[in-house]
Amino acid sequence: QVQLVESGGGGVQPGGSLRLSCVASGVTLSTYNMGWYRQAPGKERELVATSTGADRITYYSDSVKGRFTISRDNAKKTVYLQMNFLRPEDTAIYYCNAQYYRYPFDTYWGQGTQVTVSS
Questions:
Q1: What single DSSP character describes residue 63?
Q2: Could you give the 3-state DSSP secondary structure of residue 117?
Q3: Residue pLDDT, tens place only, 73-87
Q4: Which strand (E) or helix (H) includes residue 18?
């Protein structure tokens, strides 16, 4: 059974930093493309960052590029999202996502962790 468990969310002032973690179980992490998504109140869930399984190619949305960094430790089955220079508009629930690297592209989600950026 595949499980993704996020942690590290919380409240922070603008300009601050947080590091989110996502621990996966029931998977060989190197065979999964991992991503972080977020959903703010009243908005659709949006992609934040991704990291491919074996070669660890990363992608960032324009809104977080240069401020957030996705990384992974396949041996520890953990994916991280380092968030720096946080802004109020980064406030959202952040979700971890795992997608198998080939068909049928099985996809899994974590339960989410709240990030609130406010002064």
A1: T
A2: strand
A3: 999 999 999 999 999
A4: strand 18-25
